[in-house]
Design brief:
The complex is a heterodimer of chains A (about 600) and B (about 375). Helix content of chain A is about 60%, strand content about 5%. Chain A has 22 helices and eight strands. In chain A, a hairpin with a 2-residue loop joins β5 and β6 (about 350). In chain A, α13 (about 330-335) crosses α14 and α13 packs across α15 (about 395-415). The longest helix of chain A has about 40 residues, at about 430-470. Chain A is globular and about 95 Å long. Chain B has about 375 residues and is α+β, with helices and mostly antiparallel strands. Chain B folds into three domains: about 15-50, no CATH class; about 60-140 and about 150-200; about 210-355, Rieske Iron-sulfur Protein (3-layer Sandwich), CATH 2.102.10. Chain B has ten helices and 14 strands. Chain B has helices at about 20, 30-35, 55-60, 60-90, 110-135, 150-170, 175-185, 190-200, 260-265, 280-285; strands at about 95-100, 105, 140-145, 225, 245-250, 265-270, 290-295, 305-310, 315, 320-325, 330-335, 340-345, 345, 355. In chain B, α4 runs antiparallel to α5. The two termini of chain B are about 70 Å apart. In chain B, about 35% of the residues are buried. Classes of the chains: A mainly alpha (about 600), B alpha+beta (about 375). Chains A and B meet through α6, α8, α9, β4 and α11 of A and α5, β3 and α9 of B. β4 (about 270-275) of chain A pairs antiparallel with β3 of chain B, so a sheet runs across the interface. The structure holds protoporphyrin IX containing FE and FE2/S2 (inorganic) cluster. Chain B: It is found in: Cell membrane. Chain B: This is Cytochrome bc1 complex Rieske iron-sulfur subunit.
């Protein structure tokens, strides 16, 4: 209780007591206010809630990809918990006598039997199982698309590198989690996959067979793997995933979300809707949409009907054996790696044909993705914070590299279906596999080049739009009798979106030796950096400057006036340091020259 | 929070914009020649947020009421779907089957539960989003960002606390504590790790190198080739030209871990025309063109289950390794490196096929210890 102090010293004891009772919020409080008050007096949470509720989130469809992943994670956790009430993670075998006639009399593990029961006997069990499986797949797709969004918009740049890496770890764990979950029912398809996984482990030098025997508790299949997988699937990995996910989201809050470039949006602000009420309603509503759509798909589209596949039996296999699609790329790699990569050396077997695809591929790819943000910031020499996203076209080399990586992935993924392609197209599997081997190397290169060119042309189009405005479809006839289409200049808001980016320029290597002729310690790193920087930024298109726009507006009568401007712009796009061939802005200058007449007359019209 | 300014003087000011002030390498490339001419800025200036456009519901109360009814209708549909879910749960039988367009015959209970649950959730979501889009305030707000880096003062403070703490611990002055602590912390995880790794499973020993074919039956007789899964013995005369038998060793169900034994001992038995067989050893290890090979793929261990009659190829369905049955089951295509090991067979005095001895090499996928 408060003691008398200066503020209250003038009041009587009665008044003080009356004062005490008015602590509860008056007016709008009501029941909610009462509870909130009770909680806040014991936690001081109101400050944090106010801070959170006022947080601003920009709106864009591509920001929903991460949300879909988040909601799918929640759905997977809910339905997974349901499933644990009926699933029996045991490899003890017994004969099936349940309601499903085709399986009666067949010996199967409890894991398989309980999965059949969930599917066919437990009311609504199949729905929960299928929601679980579908939302796991939606989760993985959403993560991949979310990752593409983050990559192509440059959202991984400072200060978000840590979140990029947390995300990468999450995506890798989710693949493992998915693989293990798929294996739990102990059906013939997933059992074949687990058998293959044991083969993968055996290919690891020195410790391979130990790893396999420790994990399986002995030879394959043993009786330990399903219970162990179960613990990993429902306890270990979910705990790590939820922990990392929480860190991921906290970092999003700390960094505040990025935003797409546009008028009023800078690296120093975030423009959007506050958490309360708009964002809460939209995001909360979106959770129900994702859950509802998943439930609809799960109700209508059968997935993994294990009762049709039958229980795992070590000597049985079906044609067209494939893992769940998200492991397809690794399976495809295994199909493409030629057998000669296995050899005996020093009395031991080195099985690179298996190891490269099954053990090393994922760590290598993920490491490359993990270092990319640091490579890019080294190459650009850019150490600033970035909160405004890049439009993918404005960073052609990065976009090209990303698409090349996707092409690489796509070829591997396609290779996982080489048998199906062969059957469907009546081609020999040898030819298809050899073609895919070549494509694995060629496709990324081609896709890189094409993507980069497409980006550069899109940038040219943007420049064109800024310089000459939108086509209106109106045909105008000049006094001299020439025809042209009237162009309407962009307003300043539309224009800002197209000109607000920065075109990085290549960094030249500093002199290798100092004035005393001593070779700099970083000389070779500098040279590598300069070369990479050339690779990244030699071909580039610069944003239109006010001067160039003014020049474009100059009408055709003053043709000669353009010449010095053109020269200036050319020089600017090609500072002496890199040998004077034409690209980027220079081409643009030529093009706008070609348009100058129309634009000029347009102004007259 | 601030409201963004709406600078109208964008073309007149001659300043470096924020990007060129940043002091990174690019600023070295000077753009002066543009700046001087025409008194134009070097780059365009941000015009600020465009004017807010109002929605129908913001001013028109009739439109707003229409939106309200739409949102309420979506929520009502959700409630209705929930009721239907409950009804279906109790009313639809486990075995009832319905025929649906596109989807075909399917379990009525499952579909009705899925669709009603889906609608119940979806309509809540759509209602909330529609409500947010049409009726809730849609003016964008602007929040300031601040650089994440702590002020120097805070950084120094943090460093100082750490340094003081270190000082107070006297760790630097007392190397004995420093090194023993390091040792103890370095080692404490060993018991936990050892317990886990040491107890997870047995060492491989010879498990990967041996199969049930290596041992004789308890009576000392060689193991017969038995049909999988019936478990009946096979006479040479049963194996007609071109026929394929999936085979397991006699007595496999009496072993402690039959599944593990099956996985290693599975064999495929095929009868070929003897003159087709190119390898002398292959002929010798078979009987009249009837040959037995390990069915476990030498790539990562799937059962090599597919036999192409016309080409005499065995094909592994997992990654399409292809083995030539007429020549020691060598790999002729695919990612596997090694041939499938052959099992030497003969006919016992009752006319049944038996294995003379085990494989001459480990079956299945490659592993480090395999020479
Ligand atoms: C468990 C899987 C994941 C979940 C649930 C998740 C969820 C989210 C959510 C909800 C956001 C904010 C909204 C958005 O920008 O989409 C976000 C942002 C982000 N995520 Fe993820 N994410 C996951 C995986 C990943 C992966 C695989 C990566 C990349 C390797 C990644 C990198 C990032 C980055 C850098 C941001 C900040 C983006 C920005 O502010 O623009 N995340 N994540
Ligand atoms: S397991 Fe047979 S080809 Fe891979």
């Amino acid at each position: 209780m408060t003691t008398l102090n200066e503020d209250t010293s003038g009041r009587s004891a009665d008044a003080l007591r009356a004062d005490d009772t008015t602590e509860a919020p008056t007016g709008n409080g009501g029941a909610i206010g009462g509870v909130a008050n009770w909680v806040d007096e014991r936690t001081g949470a109101a400050k944090g809630v106010r801070f959170l509720m006022k947080k601003v989130f920009p709106d864009h469809w591509s920001f929903m990809l991460g949300e879909i992943a988040m909601y799918s994670l929640i759905i997977v956790l809910i339905t997974g918990t349901f499933l644990t009430f009926w699933f029996v993670p045991s490899m003890s075998e017994s004969v099936y006598n349940g309601p499903y006639v085709p399986l009666r009399g067949i010996t199967m593990s409890d894991a398989f039997k309980s999965t059949v029961d969930i599917s066919l006997d437990v009311r609504g069990g199949l729905l929960i199982r299928q929601i679980h499986h579908w939302s796991a797949l939606i989760f993985i797709v959403a993560i991949m698309l979310h990752m593409f969004r983050v990559f192509f918009t440059g959202a991984f740049r400072k200060p978000r590198e840590i979140n990029w890496i947390i995300g990468l770890v999450l995506s890798m764990l989710v693949l493992v989690e998915g693989f293990i979950g798929y294996s739990l029912p102990d059906d013939v398809l997933s059992g074949t996959g687990v058998r293959a996984a044991q083969g993968f482990m055996l290919s690891i030098p020195i410790v391979g067979s130990y790893i396999a025997y420790f994990l399986f508790g002995g030879g394959f299949p043993g009786t330990a793997i399903i219970p162990r997988f179960f613990t990993i699937h429902v306890l270990l990995l979910p705990a790590i995933i939820v922990g990392l996910f929480t860190a991921h989201i906290i970092l999003v809050m700390v960094h505040k979300h990025t935003q797409y470039p546009g008028p009023g949006k800078t690296d120093k602000n975030v423009v959007g809707f506050p958490l309360m009420p708009v964002y809460t309603a939209k995001a909360g509503g979106f959770f129900f949409v994702v859950f509802g759509v998943t439930a609809l798909i799960a109700g209508l589209v059968t997935i993994d009907p294990i009762w049709m596949y039958g229980p795992y039996e070590p000597t049985m296999i079906t044609a067209g054996s494939q893992p769940d699609w998200f492991m397809g790329f690794a399976d495809g790699a295994l199909r493409l790696l030629p057998g000669f990569l296995e050899f005996t050396l020093l009395g031991h077997t080195w099985s690179f044909n298996v190891m490269l695809g099954a053990i090393l591929l994922i760590p290598i790819l993920w490491t490359l993705m993990g270092v990319y943000p640091f490579v890019e910031s080294w190459v650009t020499g850019d150490k600033r914070e970035h909160h405004v996203l890049d439009r993918p076209r404005n960073v052609p080399t990065r976009t090209g590299l990303g698409m090349a990586a996707i092409a690489f992935y796509a070829v591997l993924f396609g290779a996982a279906g080489n048998d199906i392609i062969a059957i469907k197209l009546h081609l020999s599997i040898d030819d298809i596999t050899n073609t895919l081997r070549i494509m694995l190397v060629a496709a990324p290169v081609i896709v890189f080049w094409v993507t980069k060119r497409v980006c550069l042309s899109l940038q040219r189009k943007d420049r064109d739009l800024v310089l000459h405005g939108k086509e209106t479809g109106r045909i105008v006839r000049t006094a001299e009798g020439r025809f042209f289409e009237a162009h309407e200049p962009l307003d300043e808001y539309e224009r800002w979106r197209l000109v607000s980016f920065e075109a990085h320029r290549p960094i030249a290597a500093p002199a290798e030796t100092d004035e005393n002729g001593v070779r700099s310690k970083t000389a070779s790193a500098d040279r590598t950096r300069a070369r990479l920087s050339q690779f990244f930024f030699n071909d580039r298109i610069e944003p239109v400057t006010p001067l160039e726009l003014a020049a474009a507006h100059h009408d055709g009568q003053a043709d000669e006036a353009l010449a010095p401007l053109e020269a200036a712009a050319l020089e600017d796009a090609h500072p002496g340091e890199f040998g004077g061939h034409l690209h980027g802005g220079a081409e643009e200058i030529e093009e706008h020259n070609a348009y100058a007449h129309q634009q000029g007359s347009d102004d007259d019209a | 929070m601030t409201t963004p300014s709406n600078p109208s003087d964008k073309e007149s000011s001659v300043t470096h914009d924020s990007t060129s002030e940043a002091g990174d390498d690019r600023a070295l490339v000077s753009l002066e020649h543009r700046e001087g001419s025409d008194n134009l800025p070097e780059r365009f200036q941000d015009p600020g947020l465009p004017a807010h456009i109002h929605r129908a519901g913001d001013s028109d109360e009739a439109a707003a009421r229409r939106y309200e009814r739409q949102v309420a209708a979506l929520f009502a549909i959700s409630m209705f779907a929930t009721v239907l879910f409950v009804v279906s749960y109790f009313a639809v039988g486990n075995d009832t089957v319905v025929s649906l367009p596109i989807i075909g015959r399917t379990m009525a209970l499952h579909v009705s539960l899925g669709v009603t649950l889906g609608m119940s959730l979806l309509c809540i979501g759509l209602g909330a989003i529609h409500w947010a889009k049409t009726l809730m305030p849609d003016t964008e707000v602007v929040e300031e960002r601040h650089e994440l880096r702590s002020p120097d003062e805070a950084r120094e403070g943090a460093v100082k606390i750490l340094a003081d703490g270190l000082e107070g611990s006297q760790l630097k002055r007392r190397p004995l504590i420093k090194y023993t602590l390091g040792g103890a912390l370095g080692l404490f995880a060993i018991p936990l790790g050892l317990q886990l790794v040491g107890s997870l499973g047995p060492l491989p020993h010879t498990d990967l190198e041996t199969t049930l074919w290596d041992s004789k039956l308890p009576g000392g007789k060689p193991r017969r080739l038995m049909r999988d899964p019936d478990g009946t013995a096979i006479r040479l005369s049963d194996v007609t030209l071109g026929s394929v038998f999936h085979v397991l060793p006699e007595g496999i169900d009496a072993t402690p871990d039959p599944n593990n034994e099956k996985l290693k001992a599975a064999v495929i038995l095929i009868s070929l025309q003897e003159n087709l067989i190119k390898s002398a050893r292959e002929r010798k290890w078979g009987v009249d063109g009837v040959v037995a090979y390990s069915k476990i793929c030498t790539h990562v261990g799937c059962p090599v289950g597919l036999y192409e009659q016309t080409t005499h190829h065995l094909l592994c369905p997992c990654h399409q390794s292809t083995f030539d049955l007429t020549e020691d089951c060598k790999v002729i295509f695919g990612p596997a490196k090694r041939a499938l090991p052959q099992l030497k067979i003969s006919v016992d005095d009752e006319g049944y096929l038996v294995a003379d001895h085990g494989f001459d090499q480990p079956v299945g996928p490659s592993f480090w210890e395999r020479a």
